Hints:
The protein is mainly β. It is built from 4 helices and 22 strands. The relative contact order is 0.21.
Amino acid sequence: MNIFKRGMWGILALAVAAILLAPLGHARAQSTQGASACAVISLEQPRTAECDAEMLRYSASELVRPTTYNPETDGESRPRGVALPPDGLRYPLGWMLKAWYYSDAPGQPPPDYPKERVIQKATLMYLYATVNVNGMDWHLVGPGQWMTGEFVAAMRIPERPATISGRWIALDLTEQTLVAAVDDTPVFATLISGGWYGYGFTEEGQFNIYARAIRTTFRGPPWAEVPEYVLERVPFAQFFDGNFAFHGAYWHNWFGFPRSHGCVNVPVADAAWLWDWVNETEAEWGPTDGFRLPHPDKAPFVFVYRSPATGITPGFTG
Length: 318
């Protein structure tokens, strides 16, 4: 199995991402609950007692995790899903992409590497403050704990396009995140694995879900005369762009890294949540007992975009 992580050729990826940015303003999920004591944090002042106290008072563990792992159906994948509160987040959110050691200050390596410094893969964290050092974001994730953006997928929420209303799903190919929203209210987020550059490509743009299959078989890639792979019983596939769908992926647990031929891999439990969420609007686009939706123009939108890139972006290492 190939392993995808943030490669050292990120400088080139930055240049490409700058060209491909969607013509929208993008913002991280900002707090809507008042001023934060951590707002004063900077490269010159990386820690304060007031910010420490606030971090101890508010943790991402307070958020609801609506999906759980089912060993009978989920395979290698583990859920990353989080319910987003209707009154907004206290701080931006991020997930650890792989286990790594935190630093004492932004832009500095850890002074040592004991296991007590490790923040585990898939950990959901508040990003209490972010400082950019030489083009790389560094996130404050706990009292005196700074993590390089190389190992963090930061959830960003794009401005809703004027042509989108109701339910929509935003897929950020830079951070490899998914946000489900109703109008301007985000309700759910998780990590994804989109198309890997050169291996496949997930097109940017605005789409509607036009077909669905609770279980299906994928043979591909679509351009191959002889299939290079056959994946059976792929769950919760919701097609939005030709042969490409977002669907459950039971064969890996490297969400947050691009690694597909163009489809959008989602942890199985989170894909099930999205399936049920789309089902709630069946009266608008259905009913259907088949594959294609009778009224796809009334189905939830899918908005695929790239948020502004900083630092090293996901790449392939073989």
